Amino acid sequence: MQKSVAYAFMLAATLGLAACDKPSENKAQDAQEARTEAQESMNDAAKESNEAAQKEAEAAQEAAKEQQEEAQTPPATAPAEPAAPADPAAPAAPKQQ
Predict the structure, then answer these.
(1) What are the tens digits of pLDDT across the range 51-70?
(2) Can you tell me the distance from the alpha carbon of 58 to that of 49, in angstroms, rounded to the nearest whole number?
(3) What pLDDT does residue 2 have?
(4) Which keywords accompany this UniProt record (predicted)?
(5) Is residue 15 part of a domain?
(6) Max CA separation in the chain (angstroms)
């Protein structure tokens, strides 16, 4: 009878200890979850940074294109046709009174 009581006590103790979580396991799982979240956060930040850089590059290309177009078009205040040069060889007509 003492053996059966001892076996029952040992079984109960073993099950009781097995049911308890080890703090080191919890810390390891928490650390893994934190590492995963940090990696996801870094990936999101990198993605946003790439998108911002792409938008900045597109804006720079657009500004360069506008500057190039402005340089190619003549100013609006310039005369459309050059003035005719004076002909110094032709004599002036005399004034009639």
Answers:
(1) 999 999 999 999 999 999 88
(2) 14
(3) 80
(4) Signal
(5) no
(6) 158
Give the C-alpha distances (Å, rounded to integers) separating 53 from 37, 45, 56, 63.
Answer: 24, 12, 5, 15
Nearest to 39 by CA among 27, 31, 28: 31
- Angstrom distance (rounded) from CA 88 to CA 73: 35
Its domain, for residue 30, covers 24-68
Total tally of structural domains belonging to the chain: 1
- The Cα 79–Cα 55 span in angstroms is 40
Domain-located, residue 8: no
- Residue 34 inside a domain? The answer is yes
d(CA 50, CA 60): 15
Q: Which residue has 């032709």 as its token pair?
A: 90
**Cα gap 66→69, rounded to integer Å:** 5
- Please tell me the pTM assigned to this model: 0.45
